[in-house]
Description:
Blueprint: H1 7-14, H2 28-35, H3 56-73, H4 94-111, H5 132-141
Family: Belongs to the thymosin beta family.
Pfam families: Thymosin (PF01290)
Subcellular location: Cytoplasm, Cytoskeleton
Amino acid sequence: MLPLQYPHLIWNLKMSSPTKTELPKVPTPLKNELAQFDSSKMKHAETLEKNQLPSNDDVQQEKVHNSILTGVEGFERSKLKSTETQEKGVLPNADVIQQEKGHQKLVQGIENFDTSNLKHAETQEKNPLPTKEAIALEKSAA
């Protein structure tokens, strides 16, 4: 049994409406303040709906999605036919093997290349830049 300090819970347990005497009392100062309240002093505020309803396209997409899910969930395995899996391992032919061997020889030749057999070479510039005198001569001619 509930103690008497929780009378507001008792009427909830009875599943009936409380009587007037069982309702909580509003303090007199608060009652007077509410009676004297002037609603014209309140500021106007626009209500913005932040939880907008979905569009027709959204509803249709969800219906399609749900129908796919129910189709997958309700699928009967007894309708499936059993099959044998045939694995076909395709081996390379002789041409592919020879090509791969040639590629491996080329890679080994590059990896094992001896740089000590190389000769030193001088780089010759075939398109030299003009000298300061040539640039000055062209400026004076223009």
